[in-house]
Amino acid sequence: MIQELKNNYGHLFEDELLEEINSVATFKEVSEGIELIKPGSYIKSMPLIISGAIKILREDQDGDELLLYFLERGDTCAMTLSCCIGHHKSEIKAIAETDSKLIMIPVGKMEEWTAKYKSWRNFVFESYHKRLMEAIETIDSIAFLKMDERLLKYLKDKTKVNNDNTVNNTHQEIAYDLHTSRVVISRLLKKLEVEGKIKLNRNSIKIISL
Amino acid sequence: MIQELKNNYGHLFEDELLEEINSVATFKEVSEGIELIKPGSYIKSMPLIISGAIKILREDQDGDELLLYFLERGDTCAMTLSCCIGHHKSEIKAIAETDSKLIMIPVGKMEEWTAKYKSWRNFVFESYHKRLMEAIETIDSIAFLKMDERLLKYLKDKTKVNNDNTVNNTHQEIAYDLHTSRVVISRLLKKLEVEGKIKLNRNSIKIISL
DNA sequence: AAACCTATGTAACTAATGTTACTGTGATAG
DNA sequence: CTATCACAGTAACATTAGTTACATAGGTTT
Question: Which is nearest to A15 in space by CA: A24, A5, A26?
Answer without folding.
Answer: A5
